[in-house]
C-alpha cells in the first residue's frame, strides 16, 4: 500500500485490526491506549504519522461503548495534533445508531451528538457498515461510506445453507434488505410485523408470507438481547418452517442473549465480526462468523488510492450491466497446466494466445474476458503451478542427520521456502506476471490443500505487488457452466483452511523426522536390514500399516477348529423340471461332535419335514452417488486399479473436463443440478448412449440422497463426453458414467422367498430369489444378481428330505486385507483424508513395509511387521488409529475456526515428544522384536580383538570387528549396538570412562604417530550441547568437565570443587603428545591446544 498510510487501533477490536492489516500487507501502527489511575483514557502515538493517511479501526460497540467512543475521539485528537494528512475513522459497528430520532418528548438524538463529536475531534471521513438507519449519514458534514454485509451473507447462504429458502424480514424497516437478498437468491419473501411495548420488548407478531416446508432465513442488521429473534424463530417453526437461520451484521448479544440462543429452536445465528464475540461463540455452538476484514480492508485501500467504494457493491445495489470498458489486468493461477488451459479456453470462448513462462511445463495464456468483477474487456493472464509451490522443512543445520539429537526436531525452527529449479522458475513467472496485474484470481483445487497452495501463490505475488487485490474462484468441475458461475461469484481465500494444512504439515514433519532418524539410526546399528532407504515413520502411514499387520497376525495366530453341521436338501418337481432346495441349520454349526450327533440322530429317527413358514418379500436397491472413497474402493475391487493410480487417472479426467472434481465426501446432489443436461452428454456413446436416451424419454428417477456432505463439491459424475480414451483411463471413465446413470435409474427389485421347515424340533431354512425388475442393473454390470428359484411350498406341507447328513468341516483363517478393506478401515478411523488415503497406502508399499500378493491383498514384510510389533510392545498404540484420528479432528477444528493452530501444535508436539522419550527408554523392546526377524548387525564381521573395551550401557565387553569394506566397528554382544571407528590408526583402551555416557575411552594413534582420545559412543552420537560440526566427534572437541575435553568454551572446575576421578590417568602413548596437568588448563593453554588441534587438521580429517 505504500509508506504514506498508517493503521491504528484502540482496544475495541484489535483482532479485526490485525486481520485488516494482514489483508493489506501492513504492520499495525504503534499506539498505546490505556487508562490513567483515575479512570481517564490515556493515548500515546508511538511513531511518526506526519503527513500520513491514518485509519483508526475502532467499533464503538459493547460491552464498553463509552470507553470505545472516548478512545476513538482522543486518538483522533492526538493524530490531528501529530500533523496527519487525513484521518479516517473505520467504525464497523456504529454505537448509538438506534438513537437516531426524537420519538418521545425530551429524548435526545444521540446519534447526531456522536456525529458532532467525531467531526469536532478532527476526523475527516467515516467508514462504517450497515448503519441501523441510513439517515444517520445526514448527521455528518464529512463523507460517510456505509458498507454492506449482504454480499458476504449471500455467499454464506449459497454455500452453507441447503434446501428451499424463504427470506424473512423481522420488521417493516428491514424489508429493503430482505428483498435485495431474496432477489439475489431467487427466494420468496416473508415479513414479520412487530408490535412493541418498549425497546427490546415485543408484545405481538404477525407473519405475512408462507414459510411452510421451507428453510426460513431471518436477516437483520443487529441481534441485541435476541428476545425478539428467538420469538420470531419459534413463530416461524410453528408456521411450518423446517429450519430457521438468522443472519445478522452486528452481533451485540447483550444480557441473556447466549442463554436464549442455546435454549431456542434456531439452527444457526450467523453474524459478522464487526463486534468481538469469541467468548460468546465459545459458549454457543449455534453462533457462526462471517469475516468482513477483507471488505473493510478493500474499502481502506480504495479510499487511500482515491478509487470508488460504491463499485464494491455495484452488483448488490444494482442489476444493471456495466458496459464501460476496463483497463483492469488480472493474473489467474490454476493448480495444473491442463486446468489453466481448459479454464482459459472456456473464459475466452476460443483457444487463447499462448506464450512461455520461465518453467518449461507451465506456459502463460492471454485473452480478453467479460464481465469480470463488474468490468468488461478485462485483460486476463492465466498461468499455473504444479501442486505445492513451497517446501516446509527444518532450518539448517537440523537438516543434517548428524547435526543434532532427533529429539531436538520437535522444537527446531522450520521454514517454508521455494526449493528446486522448477519451483524457482514458477515463482519467477508468478512475480513477473504479478507485477503487471492489479488483481489476482486463484483457481486452485477447491479443498484444504488447494487453499494452502493458494496462500503460497499469494505470498509469491505479494512479494512484488503488495497492493494486488485477491479473489478465490470456487468450482467443482471444469465445464463452461461451472467456470462461468465461479467467475461471477468470486470470494476470498480461506485462511483457516490454509492454517489447518500448515499445522498438519508441521506435525507430520516434526514427528516423521524425529522418529525416522531415531529408528533408522538405532535399528540399522543393531540389525542387518537389507534396505538402504530410511526406516521412515509417519503418523498416518503407521496406523495404515497397523491395519495390515493386525490382520496378518490374526492369520498367523489362527488355530483352525473342527465343527459339525446338519445339511438338509429336498428335490421337488416344479414347472416340469426337478428343482433342489438346500436348507441351512438354524444353529449354524456346533464345535463338539457329541451334541451335534445327538441332534442328528433325533432328525434321523423322525425325518419328516414340516413347512412352518413361507415368507415372501421384495428387496429394492440402487446405488447412491459416488464419493472419492467409494471410487477408490470400487476401482480396486471391480477394475483392479490401485487407489493411488485411480486418483491420478481421475485427476487427468477432471483436468480434461470429463468428470467433476474427484475429491469429495458428498453423496447427495444439489436440488438445482441439471440432470437432464448431464445425461444428454452421454447419449452419443456407443456402449451406454441408448440407455441414457431411455432415461431422457421418461426413465429418469432423481438420485438417492446419501448421508455425507462436505459442503464443497458434488458427488463424482461425468461432465463431458469422452470417446477417444483408452486403457485404464477409459475403464475408469466408463465406470463413473455408468455409476451416474445407475443413480438416475429405477431400483432393481428382487423377490426373495424364505421357506422354514421343522425336523424333530430342529429348524432349517432355504432362501431363493428371482429378479422382478432389472432397473439400474441394465447399465451397471459391476453389481451381480443371480436367480435362485426354489420349488413351491405351502405352510403345513410335509416331505421327507432327499438328503439329511451330518458333515464335518474346519474353520478357515481370514484372508489378508484387500485394498477396499484397507480403505474402509482408514475411512472409518479417520486416517488421512479422502485425498490422501491413497498416498499413505502407496507410501507403505514404497517403504517396503507391505507387498501385494497374487490376489492383490496386502502382506506385511518382516520390516513392517517388526516395526508395528516393536512399538505395540512399548504400549504406545502407534499402530492404532486413535492418535492420528485426534490430530485429524484438531486440524478440522482449525479449519472451522474452533481451535488455534498454535494450540494444536503445542499440545500435539508435546504429546509425541513425551512418547519419543519413552520410546528411546524402551528401545530394548525393538531388540527383542527385531531379533525374531533379522540377524544382528555385524554377525558376519571378522573379529579383530575380542573384549577390547567396556560398554557404557550394560558394562559388558565390546568386540573390535572389521566390516566387509574394511571399516572398523566396536560392537556389544549384549546390547547389539555398533559404534564406527576410524579406518586407520592403532586402537588401544584408555584407562578412563566418559563422564557423559560411561563408555570406556579409546586412544587412537595415527599413522604419523599422533595419539588422541575418542569415546566410541560420543564419536557417533555427539553430545546435544555440541552444535559446531557433524560427526565424528573427538574428546578434544568436548566442553564437558573432563580432563580430555579442550573445546574452545571449556572452563575448569572451580578450585573448591573436587578433582575428577583418578580413573582418567592416561597410559603411556607411543607419540610425543602428553596430556598437560589439570592445573595448567588456563585460557592461554586453551588457545595453544586449539592451535595444536588446528595444525593437525590435515590428519584428523582422514579419521
TrEMBL record:
Keywords from the UniProt entry: ATP-binding, DNA-binding, Isomerase, Kinase, Magnesium, Metal-binding, Nucleotide biosynthesis, Nucleotide-binding, Topoisomerase, Transferase
Pathway: Metabolic intermediate biosynthesis; 5-phospho-alpha-D-ribose 1-diphosphate biosynthesis; 5-phospho-alpha-D-ribose 1-diphosphate from D-ribose 5-phosphate (route I): step 1/1
Annotated SMART domains: Pribosyltran_N (SM01400), TOP1Ac (SM00437), TOP1Bc (SM00436), TOPRIM (SM00493)
Reaction catalysed by this enzyme: ATP-independent breakage of single-stranded DNA, followed by passage and rejoining; D-ribose 5-phosphate + ATP = 5-phospho-alpha-D-ribose 1-diphosphate + AMP + H(+)
Domain Toprim: 329-476
InterPro entries referenced in this protein's UniProt entry, alphabetically: PRib_PP_synth_CS, Pribosyltran_N, PRTase-like, PRTase_dom, Rib-P_diPkinase, Rib-P_diPkinase_bac, Topo_IA, Topo_IA_2
GO MF annotation terms: ATP binding; DNA binding; DNA topoisomerase type I (single strand cut, ATP-independent) activity; kinase activity; magnesium ion binding; ribose phosphate diphosphokinase activity
A GO BP entry: ribonucleoside monophosphate biosynthetic process
Enzyme Commission number: 5.6.2.1
Pfam family, one: Pribosyl_synth
Low complexity bias (residue ranges): 1051-1061, 1080-1103
GO cellular component, one term: nucleus
Cofactor: Mg(2+)
Taxonomy, superkingdom: Eukaryota
Keyword Transcription regulation in record: no
Residue segments, region Disordered: 1049-1103
Topo IA-type catalytic domain sequence ranges: 494-916
UniProt similarity note: Belongs to the type IA topoisomerase family. Belongs to the ribose-phosphate pyrophosphokinase family.
Chain's role: Introduces a single-strand break via transesterification at a target site in duplex DNA. Releases the supercoiling and torsional tension of DNA introduced during the DNA replication and transcription by transiently cleaving and rejoining one strand of the DNA duplex. The scissile phosphodiester is attacked by the catalytic tyrosine of the enzyme, resulting in the formation of a DNA-(5'-phosphotyrosyl)-enzyme intermediate and the expulsion of a 3'-OH DNA strand.
Protein's name according to its UniProt entry: DNA topoisomerase
Organism: Heterostelium pallidum (strain ATCC 26659 / Pp 5 / PN500)
Phylogenetic lineage: Eukaryota, Amoebozoa, Evosea, Eumycetozoa, Dictyostelia
Gene name, Swiss-Prot/TrEMBL: top3
Amino acid at each position: 500500500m505504500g509508506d504514506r498510510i498508517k493503521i491504528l487501533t484502540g482496544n475495541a477490536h484489535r483482532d479485526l485490526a490485525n486481520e485488516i492489516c494482514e489483508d493489506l500487507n501492513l504492520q499495525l501502527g504503534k499506539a498505546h491506549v490505556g487508562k490513567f489511575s483515575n479512570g481517564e483514557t490515556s493515548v500515546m502515538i508511538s511513531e511518526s504519522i506526519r503527513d500520513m493517511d491514518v485509519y483508526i479501526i475502532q467499533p464503538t460497540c459493547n460491552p464498553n461503548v463509552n470507553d470505545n467512543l472516548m478512545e476513538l475521539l482522543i486518538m483522533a485528537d492526538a493524530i490531528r495534533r501529530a500533523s496527519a494528512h487525513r484521518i479516517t475513522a473505520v467504525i464497523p459497528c456504529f454505537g448509538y445508531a438506534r438513537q437516531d430520532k426524537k420519538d418521545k418528548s425530551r429524548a435526545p438524538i444521540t446519534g447526531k451528538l456522536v456525529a458532532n463529536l467525531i467531526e469536532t475531534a478532527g476526523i475527516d471521513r467515516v467508514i462504517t457498515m450497515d448503519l441501523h438507519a441510513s439517515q444517520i449519514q445526514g448527521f455528518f458534514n464529512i463523507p460517510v461510506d456505509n458498507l454492506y454485509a449482504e454480499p458476504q451473507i449471500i455467499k454464506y447462504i449459497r454455500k452453507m445453507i441447503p434446501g428451499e429458502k424463504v427470506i424473512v424480514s423481522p420488521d417493516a424497516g428491514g424489508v429493503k434488505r430482505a428483498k435485495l437478498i431474496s432477489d439475489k437468491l431467487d427466494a420468496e419473501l416473508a415479513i414479520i410485523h412487530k408490535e412493541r411495548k418498549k425497546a427490546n420488548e415485543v408484545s405481538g407478531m404477525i407473519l405475512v408470507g408462507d414459510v411452510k416446508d421451507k428453510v426460513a432465513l431471518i436477516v437483520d442488521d443487529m441481534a441485541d438481547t435476541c428476545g425478539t429473534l428467538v420469538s420470531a424463530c419459534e413463530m416461524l417453526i410453528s408456521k411450518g418452517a423446517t429450519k430457521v437461520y438468522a443472519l445478522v451484521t452486528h452481533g451485540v448479544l447483550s444480557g441473556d442473549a447466549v442463554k436464549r440462543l442455546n435454549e431456542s429452536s434456531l439452527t444457526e445465528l450467523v453474524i459478522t465480526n464487526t463486534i468481538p464475540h469469541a467468548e460468546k461463540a465459545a459458549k454457543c455452538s449455534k453462533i457462526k462468523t462471517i469475516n468482513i476484514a477483507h471488505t473493510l480492508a478493500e474499502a481502506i485501500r480504495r479510499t487511500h488510492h482515491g478509487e470508488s467504494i460504491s463499485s464494491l457493491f455495484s452488483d448488490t445495489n444494482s442489476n444493471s450491466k456495466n458496459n464501460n470498458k476496463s483497463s483492469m489486468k488480472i493474473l489467474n493461477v490454476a493448480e495444473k497446466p491442463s486446468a489453466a488451459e481448459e479454464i482459459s479456453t472456456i473464459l475466452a470462448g476460443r483457444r487463447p494466445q499462448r506464450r512461455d513462462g520461465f518453467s518449461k511445463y507451465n506456459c502463460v495464456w492471454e485473452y480478453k474476458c467479460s464481465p469480470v468483477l463488474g468490468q468488461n474487456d478485462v485483460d486476463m493472464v492465466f498461468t499455473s503451478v504444479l501442486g505445492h509451490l513451497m517446501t516446509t522443512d527444518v532450518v539448517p543445520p537440523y537438516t543434517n542427520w548428524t547435526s543434532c539429537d532427533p529429539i531436538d526436531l520437535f522444537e527446531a525452527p522450520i521454514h517454508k521456502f521455494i526449493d528446486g529449479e522448477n519451483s524457482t522458475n514458477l515463482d519467477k513467472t508468478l512475480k513477473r506476471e504479478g507485477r503487471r496485474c492489479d488483481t489476482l484470481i486463484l483457481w486452485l483445487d477447491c479443498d484444504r490443500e488447494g487453499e494452502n497452495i493458494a496462500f503460497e501463490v499469494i505470498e509469491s505475488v505479494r512479494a512484488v505487488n503488495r497492493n494486488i487485490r485477491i479473489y478465490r474462484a470456487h468450482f467443482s468441475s471444469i465445464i463452461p457452466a461451472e467456470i462461468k458461475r465461479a467467475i461471477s461469484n468470486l470470494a476470498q481465500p480461506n485462511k483457516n483452511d490454509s492454517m489447518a494444512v500448515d499445522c498438519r504439515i508441521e506435525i507430520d514433519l516434526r514427528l516423521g523426522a524425529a522418529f525416522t532418524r531415531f529408528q533408522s539410526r538405532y535399528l540399522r546399528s543393531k540389525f542387518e536390514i537389507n534396505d538402504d532407504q530410511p526406516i521412515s515413520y509417519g503418523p498416518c502411514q503407521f496406523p495404515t500399516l497397523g491395519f495390515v499387520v493386525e490382520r496378518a497376525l490374526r492369520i498367523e495366530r489362527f488355530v483352525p477348529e473342527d465343527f459339525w453341521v446338519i445339511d438338509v436338501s429336498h428335490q421337488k418337481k416344479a414347472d416340469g423340471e426337478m428343482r433342489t432346495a438346500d436348507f441351512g441349520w438354524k444353529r449354524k454349526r456346533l464345535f463338539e461332535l457329541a451334541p451335534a450327533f445327538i441332534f442328528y440322530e433325533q432328525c434321523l429317527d423322525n425325518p419328516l419335514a414340516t413347512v412352518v413358514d413361507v415368507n415372501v418379500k421384495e428387496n429394492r436397491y440402487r446405488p447412491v452417488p459416488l464419493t472419492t472413497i467409494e471410487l477408490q474402493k470400487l476401482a480396486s475391487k471391480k477394475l483392479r486399479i490401485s487407489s493411488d493410480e485411480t486418483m491420478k487417472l481421475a485427476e487427468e479426467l477432471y483436468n480434461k473436463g470429463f468428470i467433476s472434481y474427484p475429491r469429495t465426501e458428498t453423496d447427495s446432489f444439489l436440488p438445482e443440478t441439471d440432470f437432464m443436461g448431464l445425461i444428454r452428454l452421454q447419449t452419443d456413446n456407443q456402449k451406454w448412449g441408448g440407455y441414457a436416451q431411455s432415461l431422457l424419454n421418461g426413465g429418469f428417477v432423481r438420485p438417492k440422497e446419501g448421508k455425507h456432505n462436505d459442503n464443497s463439491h458434488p458427488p463424482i459424475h461425468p461432465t463431458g463426453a469422452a470417446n477417444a480414451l483408452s486403457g485404464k483411463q477409459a475403464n475408469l471413465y466408463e465406470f463413473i458414467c455408468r455409476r451416474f446413470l445407475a443413480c438416475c435409474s429405477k431400483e432393481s427389485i428382487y423377490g426373495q422367498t424364505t421357506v422354514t421347515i421343522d425336523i424333530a424340533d430342529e429348524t432349517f431354512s432355504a432362501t431363493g430369489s428371482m429378479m422382478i425388475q432389472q432397473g439400474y442393473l441394465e447399465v451397471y454390470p459391476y453389481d451381480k444378481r443371480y436367480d435362485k428359484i426354489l420349488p413351491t411350498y405351502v405352510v403345513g406341507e410335509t416331505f421327507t428330505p432327499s438328503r439329511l447328513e451330518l458333515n464335518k468341516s474346519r474353520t478357515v483363517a481370514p484372508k489378508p486385507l484387500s485394498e477396499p478393506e484397507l480403505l474402509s478401515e482408514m475411512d472409518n478411523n479417520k486416517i488421512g483424508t479422502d485425498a490422501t488415503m491413497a498416498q499413505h497406502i502407496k507410501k507403505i508399499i514404497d517403504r517396503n513395509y507391505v507387498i501385494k500378493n497374487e490376489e492383490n491383498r496386502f502382506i506385511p514384510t518382516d520390516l513392517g511387521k517388526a516395526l508395528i510389533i516393536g512399538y505395540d510392545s512399548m504400549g504406545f498404540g502407534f499402530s492404532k488409529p486413535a492418535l492420528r484420528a485426534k490430530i485429524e479432528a484438531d486440524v478440522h477444528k482449525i479449519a472451522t475456526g474452533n481451535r488455534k493452530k498454535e494450540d494444536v501444535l503445542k499440545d500435539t508436539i508435546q504429546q509425541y515428544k513425551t512418547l519419543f522419550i519413552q520410546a528411546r527408554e524402551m528401545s530394548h523392546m525393538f531388540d527383542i522384536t527385531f531379533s525374531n526377524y533379522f540377524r544382528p548387525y555385524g554377525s558376519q564381521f571378522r573379529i579383530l580383538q575380542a573384549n577390547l573395551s567396556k560398554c557404557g550401557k550394560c558394562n559388558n565387553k565390546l568386540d573390535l570387528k572389521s566390516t566387509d569394506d574394511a571399516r572398523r566397528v566396536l560392537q556389544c554382544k549384549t546390547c547389539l549396538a555398533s559404534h564406527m571407528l576410524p579406518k586407520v590408526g592403532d586402537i588401544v583402551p584408555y584407562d578412563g570412562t566418559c563422564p557423559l555416557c560411561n563408555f570406556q575411552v579409546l586412544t587412537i594413534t595415527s599413522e604419523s604417530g599422533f595419539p588422541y582420545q575418542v569415546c566410541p559412543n560420543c564419536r557417533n552420537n555427539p553430545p546435544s550441547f555440541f552444535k559446531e560440526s557433524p560427526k565424528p566427534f573427538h574428546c578434544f572437541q568436548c566442553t564437558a568437565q573432563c580432563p580430555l575435553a579442550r573445546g574452545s568454551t571449556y572452563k575448569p572446575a572451580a578450585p573448591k570443587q573436587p578433582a575428577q576421578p583418578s580413573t582418567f590417568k592416561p597410559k603411556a602413548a607411543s607419540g610425543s603428545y602428553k596430556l598437560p596437568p589439570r592445573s595448567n588448563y588456563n585460557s592461554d593453554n586453551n588457545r595453544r591446544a586449539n592451535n595444536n588441534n588446528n595444525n593437525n587438521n590435515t590428519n584428523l580429517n582422514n579419521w
